[in-house]
Amino acid sequence: MSDDPTESDPQRSTVSAFPVRPRLLVVDDEPLILEGLERLLTSRDYDVVTANGGCDALIAIGKQQFDAILLDLGMPDLNGNEVLRFVADRSADTPVIVVSGDSTIDAAIRALRGGAADFVRKPYEPEELLRRLDNTLARRRLEKENNHILQRLQQSEKWHRFLVNSSPDFIYTLDCEGRFTFVNDRVESLLGYRREELLGQHYSLVIHEDDLVRAEHIFNERRAGDRNARNIEIRLKCNPGMRRPRLMNGRCKCVELTATGMYDEEAGPFERRFIGSYGVAKDITERKQAEETVHYQAYHDLLTGLPNRALFRDHLGLMLAQAKRNQKPLAVLSLDLDHFKVINDSLGHTIGDELLLAVGARLRQCLREGDTLARLGGDEFAVLLPTLVSRSDVEHICRKVIQVLSKPVYVKGHEIYISVSIGACVSPDDGDMIDSLIRQAEIAMYQAKSHGRSRLQFWEPGMQAPYSERMQIEADLRRALARNEFVLFYQPQVDTVSGEVRGFEALLRWWHPQRGLLTPADFIPVAEESGVIVPIGDWVLREASAQLAEWRKADLPAMRLSVNISARQLESPDFVDSVMRAVQVYALDGRQLELEITESLLMRDFEANAIKLGRLSAAGIRLAIDDFGTGYSSFKYLSRFPIHTLKIDQSFVQDLDREENLSIVNAMIAMGRGMNLTVIAEGVETESQLARLQQMQCHEIQGHYCSPPLSGHAATVMLGQHGPGFAHGVQRAAS
Question: Is-contact 525 569, C-beta < 8 A?
């Protein structure tokens, strides 16, 4: 009897092939992700070791063995692909699951070919990650079990049969003429053939027709040892009579084949006689499915299933080459649904998605068989029209599209009416560069929207200029902060009774290196649309806070300073923190800082804004409603916010001679005073306007009558010379 207890107890050998608590190495350079993964895996009784980057991972792998590795790809010190190569060289049997935010097809395929056992995209569902990890560990257990049994093959033929027939891989032998002499039991679950159906049959019976030439070299492999064929991908046909096959495409399986030649061992050293070949086929169907899924997602819109921008560009490139050969024009259309945002905001994104699906289906009905329809993002579609005869073909198709989309769409009980604006450019008349044609069609589409919507607009060269200027402004804006090109000016806010300056409004200006001093009207719309307004707004907060701190250090009178807040700033998740950070860094009294926000901006996300502004008010920071009277003007809603100041829009103040405007301003001031709010009139330019506002008991005024916006230095000098009680001489001092 053997002394080895596992020899008589196969189950015990299986258990010992894997530790009680699998040890995992989690590699990621993001501390929050690393911490979250550690908590998740520890809660499932895994023994978790973490590495904060690729270098730490190599050290950990060098010190101990792991049952699996969860690996991020994009790390600054040593990327995941280099760690993969290290694992392949040192710990080839340790499976690696790549968990990466890089969703490109190249990243996934490179990782899988580099030896990764699986590829999980961030963000992921925890249960899906755990399931993939369990499957990977289960496969590793099987591999360890197989390796353990392989070591015992020399001791027992019984164990040899057990290994071969329970292997997850298809194992076979062929005679020298290519006929099967042995197949293991795996062939039945893999290909649907019983063993006896294949024995004596030529290997070509199970080879996909397109792979027969390549298979001839692999299945007739005569080399042995290190020179034999390894890990060759090939497709095997399934038994056509197999019921409900679990197949990649219903007809075949993709395998990775390793084959080696077999020789008669009883022949002499100089008489080696070839007797056939031995092969192992590993099923990689799931991996190929994953690669195909990644490839599909990289080139298709997941909502509609239509080609995305990348695939549309590929199609356009092919059609341009074909159009040159055939000397026929093609057209690129850019289609954008009119007022789609209103539908999304009022009915919800679920209804919006259903509407996009319906639009995609209707657009397909309007196009020819060879046309390409793509969704580029949001509510923007693109169409490629090859093999045109003339521009009239484009007009005909676009008329059909506009007509079809004008009919109501019924989505979950809602009757929705939509229209579409279309921009078109034709090659070769409008050029033959892929990106230029797409961009020109988009510019033409924007032109169609500006001219009334629900129409077709062909590209014309003159359309490029305003968009080129906008792009230049955006590029300059992104560099302006780094180059310190922004500056704040300060306009006094004056008490109408005492004449004292109660505060200043900080006004942003841009010293453009070529265009000189620009006002917000010249660049704020571009900054809002591009998102650059958020870092600019943070800079304004810091600069205004620094100015308050400078006045305090100079022992000047304490002033209230108002700062305008943009929509993007208020919607930013860290808006409250950025304001509090500016107050704390400069040790300000929160009551000195006042945030100016428009009515319409407050109402965009009522509940969320009420919470944010409530937190700031609790810290003493003041809130002013800017341009009052031009938005909702609803005291019922505004009473829900911690408001301290109402600023009457200058459009009312500058036309106080009209009885209607006079009544409106009088009512605003009366209601503001009734709610114990400070009321400031903007845009005061004449003594007559001041007199009327004093008569209506408006608290404060702001405008060129008192002073134009002052530089920081001029405002500081003014405060030092006059203190807070100088307002009736402000205009003279500013001049």
Answer: no
The answer regarding whether domain 301-459 maps to CATH 3.40.50.300 reads no
**Of 3.30.450.20, 3.40.630.30, 3.40.50.11540, 3.90.950.10, which CATH number belongs to 167-292?**
3.30.450.20
How crowded is residue 389: how many other Cβ atoms within 10 Å of its Cβ? Answer: 8
SS3 26: strand
pLDDT score recorded for residue 224: 74
Strand-pairing partners, residue 148, are none
Euclidean distance between CA atoms 443 and 432, whole angstroms:
16
* pTM for this entry: 0.47
**Where do the H-state alpha helices sit in 303-433?**
309-326, 340-347, 349-366, 391-406
Candidate from 59-73, 143-157, 381-395, 632-646 with smallest mean pLDDT: 143-157
Strand 23-27: give its sheet, edge to edge: 47-51, 23-27, 68-71, 96-100, 118-121
Give one DSSP letter per residue of 533-575, joined into a string.
HHHHHHHHHHHHHHHHHHHHHTTPPP-EEEEE--HHHHHSTTH
Closest by alpha carbon to 201, among 241, 167, 172?
Answer: 172
Higher pLDDT, 48 or 102: 48
Judged by DSSP in three states, 284 sits in: coil
* Alpha carbon 391 to chain centroid, angstroms: 37
Percent of the chain with pLDDT over 90: 28
Region 645-653 average pLDDT: 88
pLDDT at residue number 681: 93
| CATH architecture of structural domain 472-734 | Alpha-Beta Barrel (3.20)
Mean pLDDT over the full length of the chain: 83
Count of Cβ atoms closer than 10 Å to residue 492 Cβ: 29
Roughly what angle, to the nearest 10 degrees, separates helices 309-326 and 434-450?
Answer: 110
pLDDT value for 584: 92
The count of C-alpha atoms lying within 13 angstroms of the C-alpha of 365, restricted to the half-sphere facing its C-beta, is 12
Tell me the three state secondary structure of residue 683: coil
Q: State in words which class domain 5-150 has.
A: alpha beta
CB 379 within 8 A of CB 356: yes
pLDDT tens digits for 18-37? 457 899 999 998 888 898 88
Query: H-helix or E-strand containing 715?
Result: helix 712-722
